Amino acid sequence: MSTFLNKRPTQSPNQPFVSSVMSEPSAPPSAEHAIIYVGAASLSLIIGTRNESGTFSLLEHLDKPLPMARDIFRTGTITRATVEQAAGILKDYLLTVREYGLPLANVRLYNTNILSEAANHEIFLNRLQVSTGLIARLIDDGDMTRLVYQIGLRMLKKNPELREGHTFVTHIGPGNTRALYFKNGRLAAYSNYRLGIYRAREAVAGADGESAQHLTHLEEHIRGVVDHLAQDYSGYPIDNHVAIGAEIQSVAAELTAAKQGAFRITEDELERFTEKLAVLNPDELVRKLHVHYTGGEGIVPALQTNLALARRFGDEALWIPEGDFQRELMLDLMTASPHSANFQDEVVQAACEIGVRYKTDRKHADHVAGFAQQLFRELQHLHALEPKYELVLRVAAVLHEVGMFISPREHHKHSLYILLQTEIFGLSSSDGEMVALLARYHRRYNPEPNHPTFSDLSREERMIVFKLAALLRIADALDRTHAQRIKTIQLRPEGSRLYILTPGVDDTTVEQIAINSKCDLFREIYGYDILLSKP
């Protein structure tokens, strides 16, 4: 089993908040901003001020129920009533935004990642855009994984006991369950499963609601995926188990007091509490927990799923972050900035473990990735791509030969297939798709408009693939022998030629032949012939 498994399937309002999650354009210092988030069970708004230091002060937080997950997992679409309800809430939120004097340029609109499972999600997104004048962004599974990682990492930093041991972090979301395994504060394994609170609830839902038989069926539905998850992590020592999620975080304070930013709840306490809530009707649940109906629907399934995980792993207790999960997620979106070097290293390490699963040549992959990174940085004035594509290129370099696992013959096509079916930790689905295409085109075969997957890209995205593929081909050719003969390189442009100097290597005939056979794309994109030379 590979280390990184991929199964496709409160903070105080005035407390400074620091995060670095998703890349967005930087904002002026001390400016007020707003985030609107269409979640699984509610539609939320936060308004706040982001300061020069990266801290954030919350000024307003509104939350109104919206049955998105119920619609999606019950009918496969978003109902007309829910669409109209969402449009009405957004209209009210924009009035609030205007009261603060915020221009629309300072407002972002995000949608839950489960929205993509609705057959009419594009119509819904268009309706939101027409209603608000805002571009409706869809958070995909990769984005959500990255956000969950950041929440888990912050919790580890607050608590030395969790940071210094083997800590298992699970997030039970509306449609998926994510598992992250940390060793001494660093991510060591990751997996994603098709089990979620609302997915499970609607799979066994009946007209009679939460009957005893319904709850039994729910437990049976959960058990299969829990057993699968436990099997995947059976060889990992686990000192602590952290449970992240909107529902379990919303009720944790009912059971115990928080210490060092977390609640520690024993399995017995969780079991007794879950049993008490399970016999309540919806009205009783809403009154007891002070939640709205749509949010209350997911609480018992969430507790049952977390309890099933705790039992299966033999946990004495679960650690639960203090705070509102959805608000923290929105704050992460609000304070977004380019990924840190540490996070990029986590992503590359995750890619390396995927390479291990497919028995790639690790030394060659690392060497090509190093050359690719250097080419990207030193030729930035030529390609003019955003910094995030450096990470995409590095991951593609690490994984460009995974198709050899199936067959050396046309392995570039096999690499495309494998990577399109593999979630890569830390990358969005669109970036993961680009990694797959770069692996497809790392050899001398150029992209064609009729090629599957490539043909679905926009003109701008196609040009990005061309630019990155040209760099990857040169990096790969520099280690044509897989022997890492060329240790370092220096770039020296002269006229229409780009000289790549190879200190310590006199005979580069093999590598030059490889470059000559693959550099046509580089020549077309960047206008340079490439020659290897001694310093």
TrEMBL record:
Pfam families recorded: Ppx-GppA, Ppx-GppA_III
Record field: compositional bias (Polar residues): 1-23
Highest taxon listed in the record's lineage: Bacteria
Ppx/GppA phosphatase C-terminal domain residues: 353-491
Domain Ppx/GppA phosphatase N-terminal: 54-314
Chain positions covered by the region annotation Disordered: 1-25
Name recorded for this polypeptide: Ppx/GppA phosphatase family protein
Biological classification of the source: Bacteria, Pseudomonadati, Verrucomicrobiota, Verrucomicrobiia, Verrucomicrobiales
